[in-house]
From TrEMBL:
<dbReference type="InterPro" id="IPR050111">
    <property type="entry name" value="C-type_lectin/snaclec_domain"/>
</dbReference>
<dbReference type="InterPro" id="IPR018378">
    <property type="entry name" value="C-type_lectin_CS"/>
</dbReference>
<keyword id="KW-1015">Disulfide bond</keyword>
<dbReference type="InterPro" id="IPR001304">
    <property type="entry name" value="C-type_lectin-like"/>
</dbReference>
<dbReference type="InterPro" id="IPR016186">
    <property type="entry name" value="C-type_lectin-like/link_sf"/>
</dbReference>
<protein>
    <recommendedName>
        <fullName>C-type lectin domain-containing protein</fullName>
    </recommendedName>
</protein>
<dbReference type="InterPro" id="IPR016187">
    <property type="entry name" value="CTDL_fold"/>
</dbReference>
<feature type="domain" description="C-type lectin">
    <location>
        <begin position="21"/>
        <end position="139"/>
    </location>
</feature>
<dbReference type="Pfam" id="PF00059">
    <property type="entry name" value="Lectin_C"/>
</dbReference>
Length: 141
């Protein structure tokens, strides 16, 4: 008697190596860059930019992937006005926050870029020097 094997075909609107999330695509980089270099690399993909995390649901999706990866840049910074964090994608201030313990801390007055990393068992946000080299998450609609 033969066996039946089920095959599911998934049609993704995302390019190869990108991960689909709702109506966007996310790329988790395989190289570490400064925040500005990471943003420039995302722009090479056309309409892509460093990822904006505007909801808890999207953060949970990213958390599940980052549990096996390293810390990554996200697309917000407070470069113009200290403490006024804005998404590069829209220019709007953050309305959803996922800061880690004692973050943002702006050590030495030079931490103006947003990263996501593990605080013990929790994946959360922290600020970092934009010159630091980290992996990054690109996003495109």
């Amino acid at each position: 008697m033969g066996s039946i094997v089920g095959i599911a075909v998934v049609n993704s609107v995302c390019p190869e190596d990108w991960v689909e999330y709702q109506d966007t695509c996310l790329l988790f980089s395989k190289d570490a860059q400064s925040w500005d270099a990471a943003e420039g690399h995302c722009r090479l993909f056309g309409k892509a930019y460093l990822a904006a995390v505007e909801t808890a649901e999207k953060m949970k999706f990213i958390e599940n992937i980052l549990r096996v990866l390293h810390l990554h840049w996200l697309g917000a910074r407070d470069f113009i006005i200290e403490g006024s964090w804005r998404w590069l994608k829209t220019g709007f201030g953050l309305t959803y926050f996922n800061w880690g313990p004692n973050e943002p801390d702006d050590i030495n007055g030079s931490q103006n870029c947003l990263k996501v990393l593990a605080f013990n068992e929790t994946i959360a946000w922290g600020d970092a020097s934009c010159r630091d080299r980290h992996y990054y998450i690109c996003e495109q609609a």
